[in-house]
Amino acid sequence: MTDREVRLDLGRTDRVGFDEAVLCTGKSDAQLTEIMNRLVDAGRGMLMTRLDADVVDRMTPGHRERLDHDALSRTAFFNRVPGPAQAPTVGVVAAGSSDMPQVAEVVRTLSWFETATETVVDVGVAGLWRLLDQVERLRTFPVLVVAAGMDGALPSVLGGLVPGVLICLPTSTGYGAARGGETALHAALASCAPGLTVVNIDNGYGAACAAFRAVQAVRRASG
Amino acid sequence: MTDREVRLDLGRTDRVGFDEAVLCTGKSDAQLTEIMNRLVDAGRGMLMTRLDADVVDRMTPGHRERLDHDALSRTAFFNRVPGPAQAPTVGVVAAGSSDMPQVAEVVRTLSWFETATETVVDVGVAGLWRLLDQVERLRTFPVLVVAAGMDGALPSVLGGLVPGVLICLPTSTGYGAARGGETALHAALASCAPGLTVVNIDNGYGAACAAFRAVQAVRRASG
Amino acid sequence: MTDREVRLDLGRTDRVGFDEAVLCTGKSDAQLTEIMNRLVDAGRGMLMTRLDADVVDRMTPGHRERLDHDALSRTAFFNRVPGPAQAPTVGVVAAGSSDMPQVAEVVRTLSWFETATETVVDVGVAGLWRLLDQVERLRTFPVLVVAAGMDGALPSVLGGLVPGVLICLPTSTGYGAARGGETALHAALASCAPGLTVVNIDNGYGAACAAFRAVQAVRRASG
Amino acid sequence: MTDREVRLDLGRTDRVGFDEAVLCTGKSDAQLTEIMNRLVDAGRGMLMTRLDADVVDRMTPGHRERLDHDALSRTAFFNRVPGPAQAPTVGVVAAGSSDMPQVAEVVRTLSWFETATETVVDVGVAGLWRLLDQVERLRTFPVLVVAAGMDGALPSVLGGLVPGVLICLPTSTGYGAARGGETALHAALASCAPGLTVVNIDNGYGAACAAFRAVQAVRRASG
Amino acid sequence: MTDREVRLDLGRTDRVGFDEAVLCTGKSDAQLTEIMNRLVDAGRGMLMTRLDADVVDRMTPGHRERLDHDALSRTAFFNRVPGPAQAPTVGVVAAGSSDMPQVAEVVRTLSWFETATETVVDVGVAGLWRLLDQVERLRTFPVLVVAAGMDGALPSVLGGLVPGVLICLPTSTGYGAARGGETALHAALASCAPGLTVVNIDNGYGAACAAFRAVQAVRRASG
Amino acid sequence: MTDREVRLDLGRTDRVGFDEAVLCTGKSDAQLTEIMNRLVDAGRGMLMTRLDADVVDRMTPGHRERLDHDALSRTAFFNRVPGPAQAPTVGVVAAGSSDMPQVAEVVRTLSWFETATETVVDVGVAGLWRLLDQVERLRTFPVLVVAAGMDGALPSVLGGLVPGVLICLPTSTGYGAARGGETALHAALASCAPGLTVVNIDNGYGAACAAFRAVQAVRRASG
Amino acid sequence: MTDREVRLDLGRTDRVGFDEAVLCTGKSDAQLTEIMNRLVDAGRGMLMTRLDADVVDRMTPGHRERLDHDALSRTAFFNRVPGPAQAPTVGVVAAGSSDMPQVAEVVRTLSWFETATETVVDVGVAGLWRLLDQVERLRTFPVLVVAAGMDGALPSVLGGLVPGVLICLPTSTGYGAARGGETALHAALASCAPGLTVVNIDNGYGAACAAFRAVQAVRRASG
Amino acid sequence: MTDREVRLDLGRTDRVGFDEAVLCTGKSDAQLTEIMNRLVDAGRGMLMTRLDADVVDRMTPGHRERLDHDALSRTAFFNRVPGPAQAPTVGVVAAGSSDMPQVAEVVRTLSWFETATETVVDVGVAGLWRLLDQVERLRTFPVLVVAAGMDGALPSVLGGLVPGVLICLPTSTGYGAARGGETALHAALASCAPGLTVVNIDNGYGAACAAFRAVQAVRRASG
């Protein structure tokens, strides 16, 4: 059998305002090649996520040269260069520097969607003043993504301090009772801070899409 | 010992744009009485959630008459009548009629926040045409809350059809493998439809607060 | 101690209508060799599942040449060539191209049982029209296997659209809240679409056997 | 707010071959009344599941007299009397007499679908001869539903003995490590007996619908 | 059979510095009566925990009059009046007023151990200033018990602000993803704030014993 | 439908050396009546387990008078009086007096099997000397059942001290992290004390049957 | 720091009738060397479990030559040769040939304890006649160890057929719903076959120790 | 994107009495380099935890020579040599020699905090006399850390024997029902021994910090 059957969803932008991305984990090299060939034929670009460097190394030179790959976020822009970032700016906050890969996936995805971001890292609640120093700035963002692993306390604290749309991105940072990100996920869901929303563990792409849905609503309103 | 110690967070509106509510489950009658006394003294209103009819029946007449209680949503407006609902309108969608209590909690909370809602119920995916008939209308809302229990498939389907901010509200409807709402919760988190966000199981109040954060961002932009 | 003790169940076809297969995972090379020797001696064929290419590489040339191995599905036909595929045709549907290995295991197993299949891939509900375009065709199959990972929403949608026997095959595609296939498994079990049945996560062989039991019932009836 | 909004799926029979049923758990009396009113108005009948006797007692006499309620299975036939049972006959097997409520739900649902059933109870594997005495008879059914709780060993044993379509119905019988039916569910899924399929814990209605899908396939073939 | 066999551990004070208490849940009235009879005979007092008012109501007058029962904490002092509270003072902090029963169990147990306590309630992190206002005072306690349910974020924040021995008491306050206190338990264990320790969910008695072990160490040192 | 179908396994004694018992939980009054009628007709006795007093109260006088019911263990001897207890004596040990119902179920079941028991209660490891005082006596039993809930530490300690057959009976005593008996179950399974075996949580009947299998082996050997 | 601190429990045989073994997983090469040096100095032998071939390869020649290592069971006899196997014979039964490593650990451990074993493999219930052919023989063993993974149905079937002491050894064979052996573990615990006992997943050593405790009781009785 | 953003919490000592440490797992080489550069610039030392030897090997010579790395505990002292150890002495107790890495992390962390430790290893309860021989010595420590994996019975036994502050450190030693340390964690939490506190699985650093909080309280009192 062959696994090269692919059915792209090229009408998604019309329906929801942004394109499909390709989640590379779990796809064979042959499937990725097929997808890239189709995109080249159609003159379309695509965001690729969870794309590891060794997979890139196995690509043909023709595909590799159309690829802007970033190792930290494991994302690539294929066959299209995104335009300049537009307002409003999305705040991307992280508890610790171990959450940088997930933060980077958010930032890169929003770059692909031509949306501005500003990053605030290492403001975990165990050193509360680092966070409090940033509150005034954080209150200005209409939309924030908050990445946190381990105990996931940062979103609860932030949720009581800022008025913007809050998208919690639990990360798999930690061990033992951190349970691979489940504790951070459950803590964000069970938070008594009002109006937090949550995406899947380590799903930086999904957090960025959720942020972009809010950005779209803001743009249409300001339009 | 007495349990009447209470410390209200009356400055929350200034910080995040809307007031604290009182979650009545787990509070004693004495604590609720104390809270209501304080609010009367301060001339403040309060939204009360998860307030059962039998607790209301045990209240003093003075408190009861200041209370607008709704049995289906288990919410009450205390000591303040909300003003008229404002735009933009939040869409509140539910897979089945068993999800009505949670839907009602969303609608009542947004009424308290003086925000308009429109409800679309019984559009579960097992009868897909009921949903497809509503898609054009659903595409017009800048913000939607989607309640679903059991397999939680509705948010995934909707996520590929509409561009608005999508807040999934998993409900505890179902039995066995529905796992008290966990399957709907996990399905919404693991969805391949892009940009879904999720709140806690049966947390209609939280979904409404999340929707209101997005409404605020839209209002400020259109302002 | 030696681990070469083997007791084949060669009478299974008489009892249930199809033979035993060998699940290769967890068996030593010595055990597989012993099984293949026995089959050659008895002049019998066997389907082998979860057989990785590196295990094949370590086999004797004599065994390897009796083997029709397929890397994608990790299956092999040993010492027998299946005859041509017979009616009725089983539909094999998959949400995404990442589910191809499981789809391939279904298709190969049904080939071994000399039963026709038709494959429909990449019809996940996030791009609903891809699925709706296929509904008329899908309604014609008396038996369908539906592979889906992540949120597992496809079986619920399909269950409300088609009348055939529906066998859901949850896959381990996804991460975090997908919980290695458990969310897709639970979603299929908790679905409000009526009459779905489910097999173990990634158990393409089992899904094919279940489909074949239904095919046998149909054949006997049409007999 | 009112919870009486109801949207019936009256076209389901055309799509999948049998009607929607009403799951009464989680619905208010007002919702059930509304549904029954609609059905009377439309001249349609409906199967009601998980309907407890005390809910029936609170119905109006007009609704009660249109109702054929069975306490053991918690099912009711509303506003329609099913016709005589047709071939082929579905075998309904149970490990213990504690599984009778679930067995009864299967039998009543298939009665509603005008399909014949034959019941074999108390054939748990701890008294293996009780089962072996029935094997010849069990081998004649084209479709079997097998209810089992606790360790759920019966489906595995049966799966190696009979050729029919096998639908396992795990029940919540047992305590401790039976985990409310999860162990029986997992055992059926993990079984090495080939081609078992599984429905949700205690979902007798779903098992009957799955059986009916197979019955339909057989009828069309013998047609 | 009779269940009145009882074997008290009257030497515990010599070994660990404080007496055994009686956990009343799961004990029959006959067992509690037997224990109280033994204590009266031996001229000994006992702390009773998880003792509900209705059990007290069924006691003989002779036992009831030797009992100082507190309904909120569900504790009783039997056959002994504790002496005046001694230094050092243990701080008992709670995120919300729903945690008062657990706080009360801590305070009452420490009273029994003749140790001073000071209570600070309703300082959850969603209203951070309520907590920050108390930090200077909280920094003075050599030992603190911190009760928190839901997301359990309070211990993490406090752990970065105060130098004392920190004993986290997760409570079962909350629903859904709060998982009956497990999320607060896991969050405290996974916290990046250094040196938190944790006791069982709702185990106010255990938290007080742990605090008393630290108090003993301090007393011996200051001795 | 009726649920009175019953199929007793009267040949079990011949196969395994002791009779079937009736687990009353989950059986209807009608089913229990049917079973008792059959036994009276056959002139056979039966052990009944998990039989609550209120069920006994609803029985006919004719059945009640043939019943020796014990409320603590929730067991009854029906239609037969067991003979005198025989050697060897089984030791039944429990960590706390809250485990008495389970201990009683073990003792009553072994009485039914006409086997001697000796009970040692309240020897939990938190008061280690209570246990050490009994070690010499405990070393004399060829077979011991050890009941323990909460942390389940008693079996591990005992396993390093005595040579007899050790059957651990985890109990659901405790709360929170005791997880309804799962922690005691897992602790007994994971114990580093060699040769512990375990039965289901609260399964006093099963522990007694396991003990009786060992007793039978000893009797045959000494025979 | 050094990790060479070791405290052997050389008096265990006097207390429980058999020696300590060394679980090699999780121990460093340095720790194993230290233990072997001590044993050589003391002139004592030791059973080593979970000892992989590559660890053996890194040992000194002096240690290796005192070692009788078996790769399948991952066991070694160090510095002592066990004497001939004695009666009674323990039956060791396994559902499938994938369970051979665990079976081998049981057999080797009982060899070390100088106890006879007889092995019956590949008698899983999906091919029931393979098992029924062996029943008469299996009924003669006073003690049986039954290894089973996946659905773990074999112990339930066997428990209703044979009178001996039954020690279930769940194995991690299988995938998905087999949950790494948990389903087999739970099934054995929840079995309705009376008097099964269970040890930890893959704990062949523990099953052998449990069998040996029963063997000791039999030997003392036959004395 | 770059991941070199780092925000150190250099004021932690003033707030809680000891510095931040760097958890190296999950940090990139670039992040560690950046942190070490900052510390060198600031003339500050740092404790590094979970630092594997291969990461050290990739460091620059300049960083490596400032590093005192210990392979067993996976800790390093960077850019500062701790002073001599002070009283009071913390007892560090472990059930088995497989827990040495965690014990070593506790000891090294307390060395960094210039606090004395004394280690007692291999006193698991399966060989109880090894523990009882040490009780008098263990009773003298004001603070003890108790490491235990598998069934985690040691803390319960110790909790009834010694008066000091008891910090349980569950370890991931074991397999199957040991559940990667969860059983030891739950057993310590559910223990009936009074006043145990618990830290995360394998969190030797956290246990040491908790011990140091108690040590600080003792030092302040002894003034």
Model description:
Eight copies of one chain form a homooctamer. The first copy, chain A, folds into two domains: 12-78; 86-222, Rossmann fold. The first copy, chain A, contains ten helices and nine strands. Chain A has helices spanning 12-16, 29-42, 53-57, 61-64, 100-112, 128-132, 135-138, 154-159, 182-190, 204-222, and strands at residues 21-23, 46-49, 67-70, 75-78, 86-94, 115-120, 143-148, 165-170, 196-198. A five-stranded parallel β-sheet of chain A has the order 6-5-7-8-9. In chain A, strands 1-2-4-3 form a four-stranded mixed β-sheet, covered by helices on one side. In chain A, helix 9 (182-190) links the parallel strand 8 and strand 9 (196-198). The longest helix of chain A is centred in the last third of the chain and has 19 residues, at 204-222. Chain A is globular. In chain A, 62% of the residues are buried. Chains in contact: A-B, A-C, A-E, A-H, B-C, B-D, B-E, C-D, C-G, D-F, D-G, E-F, E-H, F-G, F-H, G-H. At the E-H interface, helix 1, strand 8, helix 9, strand 9 and helix 10 of E face helix 1, strand 8, helix 9, strand 9 and helix 10 of H. Chains A, B, C, D, E, F, G, H: Residues 88-220 form the PurE domain. Chains A, B, C, D, E, F, G, H: GO terms for molecular function: hydrolase activity. Chains A, B, C, D, E, F, G, H: One of its GO terms (biological process) is 'de novo' IMP biosynthetic process. Chains A, B, C, D, E, F, G, H: This is PurE domain-containing protein.
